[in-house]
Design a protein that fits this description.
Layout lengths: L2 H10 L5 H48 L2 H43 L4 H24 L3 H29 L12 H10 L6 H7 L2 H22 L20 H10 L3 H11 L4 H10 L3
Helix pairs in contact: 4-5
Length: 290
């Protein structure tokens, strides 16, 4: 029996069992609880919304109330705090780095401090361990083991020599610009591939295309800087004397114009005849039959 049936039974005076009464009462209580819960939730949502709107209004009012000077001061303080945080993080990272790699530094220092020598020593030690393993497996003598080690060293040297020769062949090729400075990286890349990569393939695998673009860009920048330093020559329509030459006097220029000769020819005649004055130049010119 639901709530409506229970109400009708009460109005007509019909008999209602205890179970039906309990079910009807439970339904009434549930309905009341749901109505009250919905009302409470709606009220809480309205309160939260009002609080949010009030907070936003307060923030906007505070920002509007700040003067430009106060805003600048606030921004500077914010920047200072940010720098402090960055400095703190940097210090913590450096400390973690030191703690993590301090033992590595000690090992490197104890072995001479030269990474290349340490790497070569590690390779040689690995070669000796491999030789000892093969000796134990195949029953080699000490002489056989030493012979194997020497053979491995010679093969490694020949491989390095071949790589160097190929790099020397490619270093003048603009498509492989900067390859000469990548010899160690290329050799290590080829070793990691167990000799599967060529020098060219190792170069491109190590980002050779970016290196080529960088080298070309640097060359262009050097050329531009070189051109900018060169003095510019400006061509002029009017005749001018060469740098370092003594200009002709106005009287000589007037006499040259009267005689129908150019300034250059007048200068040449004065230089050849060593005339110092206009009168000397006239006398020498008459003596030359002109």
């Amino acid at each position: 029996m639901d709530q409506n049936e229970y109400r009708k039974a009460r109005e007509t005076g019909a008999t209602v069992s205890d179970a039906d009464l309990q079910a009807a009462e439970t339904e009434v209580i549930d309905d009341q609880f749901e109505e009250e819960s919905d009302e409470v939730i709606e009220e809480e949502l309205e309160e939260v919304q009002d609080d949010l709107e009030t907070s936003e209004d307060d923030v906007e009012e505070e920002v509007e109330q700040l003067s430009p000077k106060e805003q600048t001061a606030f921004q500077k303080r914010l920047e200072r705090e940010q720098k402090k945080i960055e400095e703190k993080l940097r210090t913590e990272m450096e400390e973690q780095f030191k703690q993590k790699y301090s033992k590595h530094d000690e090992v490197i220092s104890s072995m001479g401090g030269d990474p290349e020598k340490i790497l070569n020593a590690a390779k040689e030690a690995q070669m000796v361990r491999e030789a000892q393993r093969l000796a134990d497996q195949n029953g080699w003598s000490d002489a056989d083991t030493q012979w194997y080690i020497e053979q491995q060293k010679q093969q490694q040297e020949l491989k390095e020599l071949r790589v160097q020769m190929q790099i020397n062949r490619l270093k003048d090729n603009p498509d492989y610009a900067g390859i000469a400075s990548m010899e160690k990286d290329i050799l290590a890349k080829i070793d990691r591939s167990n000799g599967a990569l060529t020098v060219e393939e190792a170069f491109w695998a190590l980002g050779g295309n970016k290196r080529v673009e960088q080298v070309k860009l640097e060359a262009q920048q050097r050329e531009i800087a070189k051109r900018a330093q060169q003095p510019r020559t400006v061509q002029r329509d009017s005749p001018s004397t060469s740098v370092g030459e003594k200009p002709l006097s106005p009287s000589v220029l007037a006499e040259a114009k009267k005689m129908g000769i150019s300034e250059a020819e007048a200068r040449r005649l004065m230089t050849a005849q060593s005339a110092q004055t206009i009168d000397e130049w006239r006398e020498k010119r008459k003596g030359s039959g002109r």
